[in-house]
Amino acid sequence: MADPLSITQSAYAAFGRGDIPAVLESFDDNVEWVLPDTPGVPIGGTHRGKQAVAQWFQKLAQEMEFHTFEPRQWIASGDKVVVLIHSEATVKSTGKRLVDDLCHVHTVRNDKLVHFREWDDTLAAQEAFRK
What we know:
A hairpin with a 2-residue loop joins strand 5 (about 95-110) and strand 6 (about 110-120). The chain is of the alpha+beta class. It has 4 helices and 6 strands, in the order ααββαββββα.
């Protein structure tokens, strides 16, 4: 049985390589994926199940081009892993740059990610997506 930190770090490494199938393999079939549901930002909301999260990753790729996605700190306790991230991306529909520091909280059970929640600068996201 792997520890929650190494499971989470492997998922982020796969995302950094652009290997979304490997990212999805780290998720439980019934994963719950929660992002701020910010008006005007089409990548927010709650997504349940591996298929819904796969669709979310497709939407993310359609909406944003990442220049930097850098996990800077990892905090693990029990089945929880907190990841503090610096992100820089361009919103494709507006051409605006979104620079944000994110907080991701994961729950890991039975060697799979079962829950994800993101906190971000919702005002900055609204501004970047506003046409």
